[in-house]
Write a structure and sequence with these properties.
- By secondary structure, the protein is mostly helical.
- It contains twelve helices and two strands.
- Helix 9 packs antiparallel against helix 12 and helix 10 runs antiparallel to helix 11.
- The chain is globular and about 65 Å long.
Length: about 250
């Protein structure tokens, strides 16, 4: 509702790039390579990327299918929202209703349609949670008219934020190592909890120090690779190369 009202009220003098974000600074759905920090995300976001890709999502860990709320996004709801558009075979996009969009993309849709979307929110029989989820699944279509908008994660990081891992395979390896570290840290947390509550039975692996050393090693390796990706992304030629566009 707030997003739509902002667009409606500022439609004639909208900024070159508009950022639509939740109010909190730290969130699980923010970029892990940016420390899940909204301030850092905004600071590094490329306006040029936003102008090229419509819209650009600050979250790039994708939602997966089979969510219970999807049952509410029916053909009928689609036709209510987009009465002049064909129902697509699928809807797919990064999660969580945070995005950046250019003025040109906002104004490619008439102001009257944003009023229409807001009226739908005010009058739909769906509860707020499910109506909001429908809108979350619709923003990318509103601004791009592309029902499936899932750019490669490494290109989002590199071209969007100047964090260039050197390709999808290397980014996947970094994320896999991050999961390893989280698992090691989880084991250490359980160990610490067991030591703090000796009366509770807990089955824990041996070699506590080995797990602590493993967590430290993984952290150092992750930090070093991340720092290299930041440095690589400082060069516009590297950003262009990773996404396959002219420098």
């Amino acid at each position: 509702m707030v997003y739509l009202t902002y667009i409606i009220d500022h439609y004639d003098n909208i900024s070159d790039t508009t950022l639509f974000f939740h109010h909190h600074r730290w969130a699980w759905h923010n970029n892990i390579l940016l420390g899940t920090d909204t301030a850092n995300t905004i600071r590094r976001l490329s306006d040029e990327r936003v102008a090229r890709i419509h819209p650009d999502r600050p979250e790039i860990d994708y939602d997966i299918y089979k969510k219970p709320e999807e049952q509410h996004f029916t053909r009928k709801v689609w036709q209510e929202l987009f009465p002049f558009e064909r129902v697509p075979p699928a809807i797919s996009q990064p999660c969580c209703a945070q995005f950046a969009v250019s003025r040109d993309r906002i104004r490619a849709t008439p102001r009257s349609m944003y009023i229409h979307y807001r009226d739908w929110l005010l009058n739909t029989p769906l509860d707020d949670a499910n109506a909001g989820r429908v809108m979350e699944y619709s923003w990318h279509y509103i601004f791009s008219r592309n029902a499936e908008l899932c750019p490669a994660m490494n290109t989002c990081y590199c071209d969007g934020y100047g964090i260039c891992c050197g390709g999808a395979v290397k980014l996947k390896a970094w994320l896999g190592k991050q999961l390893e570290r989280e698992a090691a840290d989880d084991t250490l947390r359980k160990w610490d909890e067991a030591e703090a509550n000796p009366d509770k039975q807990a089955v824990l692996p041996e070699n506590h120090q080995d797990w602590r050393d493993r967590s430290t090693r993984l952290r150092d390796e992750l930090d070093a690779t991340r720092d290299e990706a930041y440095k690589r992304g400082d060069d516009p030629k590297n950003r262009a190369l990773e996404v396959g566009r002219p420098s």
